[in-house]
Design a protein that fits this description.
Elements lengths: L2 H11 L6 H12 L8 H19 L8 E2 L2 E2 L1 H5 L1 H20 L8 H15 L4 H11 L6 H26 L6 H28 L2 H4 L5 H4 L11 H19 L6 H12 L3
Antiparallel strand pairs: 1-2
Helix pairs in contact: 1-5, 2-3, 2-8, 3-5, 3-8, 6-8, 7-8, 8-9, 9-12, 9-13, 12-13
Amino acid sequence: MTEPLLDAFRYTFRSGGKRIRPTLVLEACKAMGGDPEKAVWFALAVEMIHTYSLIHDDLPVMDNDSMRRGQKANHIVFGEANALLAGDALLTEAFSVLTKGLDAGLSAGQVVMATRILAAAAGFTGMVGGQVMDLRSEHKTIDVDELFSISERKTGALILASIKLGLIASGTDLNEMAYEAFCKYGFDLGVIFQMVDDILDVVGDPQKLGKTTGKDFKAHKKSFMHFVSPEEGRDLVKKMTEEACAYIEPYDKNSFFVSFAHYLERRES
């Protein structure tokens, strides 16, 4: 009876993508000397949350997009009702998956902390709250500080949570300064990601992006491109990337994160 739901669930989840968030979970765990195998369930849960958000974002009631990752959006293939329910299922199942960290050797305390962090990042104070702010800002005049606030929640919260979950999964006694440094890095990384998204929406190649470009900007949805040109945006992204990398410069196992920030800075998809 649930076969259409499972098909819709799998369709977007298995469609590829950059897997940025689960990668950050695993690498943050490694950076603190932890075993990334213990962080796998946390990484999977984060990607499930991200995938649900993509399915819902594409729905006609939200961004009304017909393409995602180079293929038809979920609701185009399975219908709006199944797409909505597939997103609901991914969101719900993600928290069940988090508890499987216990089977990987994580403590109940680690799982509870991860659950709190992921719920906050996905919900009212994070991604969903940012989406509400974004919708409310349409056809209104907002300043760049408010746009930063929207981006920090809508996009940045889940990226920052990914790093936090990896740090928790490491199981080490986290040095407070190191924890704060990696969190500041993750915070900036989320804003950088959104800025580059906004730039690519204006000047990106639809074939590389796997989705329609220019739609959000033309619809006057709030974008950093309403405040700066793509060239100025690239300069700002470069500056923020340097600042993000500076936070983690004092720590030995920072090479992945430095390279990753520069990859996001220069990405074309």
